[in-house]
Amino acid sequence: KKGRPYRYTYCLTSTCAASPMHKLLKVDMVDLSQKVWTPEPYEFLGEPLFVAKKGAQAGDAEDDGYVVSILLNGRTKTTEFLVFHADDVEKGPLCRVPLPTYLPHALHGTWTPEFVPSQAEIEEAWSKVPTSLG
């Protein structure tokens, strides 16, 4: 057996398969209930991460903490750092902290400051992806 049992997962979702994922989704893996927060149509979230509250102990509620993410505003080309209560993400962020620099949209976190591909590099990479895996 690998890993540890867990009850909640936090991920991104979208209403349209052709658009970037932008909604924050919390799924209860026991009863399969879902809670979702939807930003403005021109705002896009990055990978959500769970952060336990300071002083968290074994036996505390699994969602007793925070979910953090970055948010790209497609209209203004600005980025914010968002903090949500993990137990009630549908209420929206507790705070939105403007970042001093624009971070391009990405599904997963990228922690290498030297790596920011140009649009041409992204398009070239996608052109090499097969359209069918069969």
What count of helical segments does DSSP give? 1
Question: How does the helix and strand content classify structurally?
Answer: mainly beta
The radius of gyration is 17 Å
The portion of residues assigned to helices is: under 10%
Largest sheet: 5 strands, antiparallel
What is the CA-CA span between the terminal residues?
32 Å
Low-confidence parts lasting 5 or more residues at pLDDT below 50?
none
Order of helices and strands: EEEEEEEEH
Keywords, please?
134 residues, mainly beta, 3-stranded antiparallel β-sheet, 1 helix, 7% helix
Please specify the SSE layout and strand pairing.
Layout: E1 8-13, E2 23-28, E3 34-37, E4 43-45, E5 49-52, E6 65-73, E7 78-85, E8 95-98, H1 119-127
Would you give an account of this structure?
The structure is a single chain. By secondary structure, the chain is mainly beta. The protein has one helix and eight strands; from the N terminus they run E-E-E-E-E-E-E-E-H. The chain has one helix spanning 119-127, and strands at 8-13, 23-28, 34-37, 43-45, 49-52, 65-73, 78-85, 95-98. Strands 4, 5, 6, 7 and 8 form a five-stranded antiparallel sheet that branches. The chain has a three-stranded antiparallel sheet with strand order 1-2-3, with no helix packed on it.
Task: Give the gist of this structure.
With about 130 residues, the chain is mainly beta. It contains 1 helix and 8 strands; from the N terminus they run ββββββββα. It is about 5% helix and about 35% strand.
